[in-house]
Amino acid sequence: MAPTFKVRKSEDRGYANLGWLRTHHTFSFGDYEDPAFDGFGTLRVLNEDVVEPGKGFGTHRHREYEIFSYVVSGALEHKDSKGNHEIIRRGDVQFTTAGSGLAHSEFNASTTEPVHFLQVWNLPSNTQLPPGYETGHYPDSSKKNRFATLVAPAKKRDRVDPGHPDVGKPVAIHSEFWMSAALLDPGVEVVYKTTHVGEGKKGQSHPRRLYVHVVQNNPKVKVTVTSNEAADEAPEITLSEGDGVFVEGFDGQGPGLVVRNDGQGVAEVVLMDLS
């Protein structure tokens, strides 16, 4: 069975401009509610945030969710109730397991430049996990014209072959969730094939869900997404900056997902692979 595709256009996302914060919401969040987009599998939040210099999110509490930030540009300062204090920059993924309860704050560490990042919330497989914190660093070289794995299940991350000298082991998450990122030059095509297909009832293969997001940092980008089936069977999806596409029924034994940069300049693409 071929995978299905559903496009999420950037302009259709939730949006708020609070002066100090400009944010787009792929899913319902805060005052933005859309019953058609309340989540996707265990993925509950995907916000694309730009925070003005010296501003940010004051101390607030979270429970249960695992929350992480993918920095696109600028410097993001993190503090939490467990004593963690760090400034993360481009290439960094800052990951927090809220678990049984954690308070944290996130501020733009610069007084002159905005910080642009993706904020992701995912539901872990178990509740009441001990609060935790981890940071991974993945330079641009590790993502150039390839998908680098940034986040992987805690019990499986040590099995991930980095495939590149600049890639460290993925950040550990407590669910069947994987996140990768790629920086594609114009004309470059990469194929993503998951090896994470789970087992459903009676040992049957349980297909995966994928979400492909084009980072909003290049207005001339044009990303084409399709599966590598026969051309007359597979639709071609065209994405601009800020757009995304939901892919369901993705079987690791079947066709791969083809992602190609048909635009000008580098396309920064984030891919989430979940059950």
TrEMBL record:
CDD domains: cupin_Yhhw_N
Location of the Pirin N-terminal domain: 13-121
InterPro entries: Pirin (IPR012093), Pirin_N_dom (IPR003829), RmlC-like_jellyroll (IPR014710), RmlC_Cupin_sf (IPR011051)
Pfam families: Pirin (PF02678)
Highest taxon above the source species: Eukaryota
Family the UniProt entry places it in: Belongs to the pirin family.
PANTHER family membership: QUERCETIN 2,3-DIOXYGENASE
Name the UniProt record assigns to this protein: Pirin-domain-containing protein
Organism, scientific name: Gonapodya prolifera (strain JEL478)
